[in-house]
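Q&A log
Question type: sequence-to-structure
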Amino acid sequence: MKAWVGVLAAALLVACATSPLGRRQLNLFPEAEMEAMGVAAFQQVKEKVPLSNDRAANNYVRCVADAVTRDVRASETAARWEVVVFENKSANAFALPGGKIGVYTGMLNVAKTQHQLATVIAHEVAHVLARHANERASTQFATQTGLDLLGVLTGTPSASKNALLAVLGVGAQVGVILPFDRAQESEADLLGLDIMASAGFDPRESIQLWRNMGAQGKAAPPEFISTHPSHQTRMADLNARMSDAMKLYERARLQGRRPVCSPTR
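Response status: OK
Response body:
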């Protein structure tokens, strides 16, 4: 009953929210609940996916992540983000509410410079800042699996816990990263561009990252049947925002923000 009251109160208070870029959102859940779920999901990933023992790779990823998140508080209760490098060939990364960042070693073969890796990490952090997981959970709660999600919130053992990991962006088979929808992905691209530029990373290299992704050779479905924008659309949208991002980048450099992160350190 307390959980029902909490969810209903949250629905009344924050259902009509606005993303950092001005898009209207449905956010039903208290952020503290989302952070708790993010922490639990991250722990499950760490139990299922091997951690990388490569000291240089770990130092490199943490260097980039620390610079990206320098002015981005991890959560209501934590000031610093936990950054973990997972030993997995997939070119994936994710961030979860509660201040958690995961990067797969396979991503380091695609994001070939610190600026390109910053593009990836800033994009994932942008999902968290824009409360996209809350938005997706709220939509599912309102349309399909409200009772199941409520069971997860109240701690009731349920198969829907795996479904909730998918809501957060972590697949039911742990380690598989599921996509956000097109609007959320596009928003994370643009917000992430601002974040990386403000941290002193060159936003122009975001374009090269998507060229690298396209060169992976995996056929992408047509954009109209895909949850992700096409690589071409993403690059066009990033280019359209590049002038503003470059101003943030130049300002950051004038303020002494010039990250130097290397995979060989």
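Response note: Residues 171-178, 221-226 have pLDDT under 50 and may be disordered.
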